[in-house]
Amino acid sequence: MIDLLVIGAGSAGCAIAARASENPNLNVLLVEAGPDYARIEDTPFDLVNSHNNSYRKHDWGFQYEPTRERQQPFPRGRVVGGSSSVNTTIALRGVPEDYNEWAELGNTEWCWEKVLPAFNRLERDLDFGDTDYHGDAGPISIRRYPYEELQLQHQAFLTAAQDLGYPDCPDQNDPNGWGSGPQPMNKLGRLRISCAIGYLAPARARPNLTIQPESFVRRLIIENNQCIGAEIETSEGVERILAKTTVLSAGAIMSPAILMHSGLGPKAQLESLGIAVIQDIPGVGQNLCDHPAVSVVMKVKDGINIDFDSPLIQTILRYTAEGSEKRNDLQIEQLSFVGQNDGTPKMGIAAVLEYQYGRGELTLTSADPHVAPKIDNRFCEDERDLSRLVGCFRDTLTFAHQSPLSDMTTGIQFPDLKRGDSDEALGQLCRKFSGSGYHPCGTVKMGNDALAVVDQFGRAHKVDNLVVADASIMPFVPRANTNLTAIMIGEKIGEWIRTRPADYGL
């Protein structure tokens, strides 16, 4: 029997395995459904290439419903490194209020004052590492594009933002900052600094850490209300891996799915699929949070170069909706290009809602663990979300009409403004076309209310020796791309396991 079984080598799982294995007395096994590329020189280009996401080659193949009766692909990384190996490498933290609000919900260990050291510990900030709210020696390298490295459209975006009255914000991770500036990104040149590279590369030599790829987790093994390991499927068949403590870090989609396939979830749903109920846990799969977004698309003029091999994103504007109580609840992002390189060059500007009130849900559709769950986001059904996204979209249209951005285009292709630009018209558009920022979280949330599944230390309320630690335990989505927050969760819980193993049954 091993000491610690970590299921899922994603952003949080890699951090947990690396930190926990710093304790030489703990034997750690990290299992991952996807492949493992132990050396950078053996890593496929789609995982190296931080200029754009890897959408298909290392993907789970999920579909989701952003709004009613509409399905789209939902990329999630199926590889050691998880979605940190396939994402856009945006390294935003959110605002202190996010984490203080988590604390107000009963998770006092997650207030800003207590998460900041973990954020600092995980990063090697190459631009602002000398400030007290940044780190300069962590495993994840972070830098920002200097102005001369920005694509022309990103330079134009920053000029437009200044002309529209937004302040410059050179460090978007300044706790008090807002305005326009370069994105902080965990990339060096073209190389994506994933958690597989940042965390696992230096940890692989440890004799007490084993990484087992191509291992699909069918279910957890629960006996006498205690998790004793997991049932794993490999090319050689199905095996049982026994562990003193199991950490589920499979992400906001697969962590709740694995729990439900293990008999831990909403009783009526499990019974309807013929899954034996071990514990009725209503909150599993509920509380799905994300960032709804909708983009303005513009055709560019002849002679304007749109390079589909350039970085997709380099800049950002963070600001607060008119009348909102939630600071920095909106983002506008310039996109270097949109669509395919089919001879019609286009670029876009994305309007993104960062503080979401509405909630979706994740449900099983089959007792077969290989069948993907149903992901129902229900974007813009909450009027507070709809009104603020409409306002953000209207601001994005203003950018599209603002020189020097407008000087690069022949006009707006989407939306068709001939159909109207009233709040009602834009609201209908947002209800129909909002899509995910690919930041799902909240589906196994921590806390002590009726829908909470784990406590603030990640320990399951109703099953012993089971820990959940990934984006699924966030009470709600922070006002930022979620990768850095997921790593921070792994940092905190990994450190707790390393330094206080008895609290985790070790």
Low-pLDDT sequence parts: none
Helix content: 10-25%
Q: Using the 3D structure, state the CATH architecture of the largest domain.
A: 2-Layer Sandwich
Approximately what portion of the residues adopt beta-strand conformation?
15-25%
CATH topology of the largest domain: Glucose Oxidase, domain 3
Fourth-tier CATH superfamily name of the largest domain? Glucose Oxidase, domain 3
Oligomer: single chain
Q: How many strands appear in the DSSP assignment?
A: 25
Distance between the termini: 12 Å
Q: How does the overall form come out from the CA principal axes? A: globular
Highlighted features:
globular, Glucose Oxidase, domain 3, seven-stranded antiparallel β-sheet, alpha/beta, FAD/NAD(P)-binding domain, seven-stranded mixed β-sheet, 11 helices, 2 domains, 506 residues
Short description:
This protein is 23% helix and 23% strand.
Question: What would you say this structure looks like, in words?
Answer:
The protein is an alpha/beta fold. It folds into two domains: about 200 residues, 3-Layer(bba) Sandwich (FAD/NAD(P)-binding domain), CATH 3.50.50.60; about 230 residues, 2-Layer Sandwich (Glucose Oxidase, domain 3), CATH 3.30.560. The protein is about 25% helix and about 25% strand. It contains eleven helices and 25 strands. Strands 1, 2, 11, 12, 13, 14 and 25 form a seven-stranded mixed β-sheet that branches. Helix 9 crosses helix 10. It is globular and about 65 Å long. The model has no long low-confidence stretch (mean pLDDT about 95).
